[in-house]
Amino acid sequence: MFIVMLHYLQPIPVVEQHVEQHRAFLDRHYAAGHFIASGPQVPRIGGVILAQGLTREALDQVLAEDPFYREGVAQYQVVEFVPRKFAPALAPLFAAEQ
Question: What is the rounded CA–CA span in Å between residue 89 and residue 23?
């Protein structure tokens, strides 16, 4: 499982110009089962994506498709982790990560 931290490199008005394409990118990868949660950071200095079911190399290829990356709007920090403890309701989500 991965936590992807996006940090904006451009002012919010520039970010907003690419949000629609970024959301379409997110939708494609939710449909593919790669992403399980995403959203903006508070304060709005970037975003966060939770990803699973990919190798690190495959995730890097996916992130390279993001319009935020292609257009130089955001940079990424990727943290890989193995969930060992989680709420019982999330067990089906994390079973493949064990």
Answer: 27
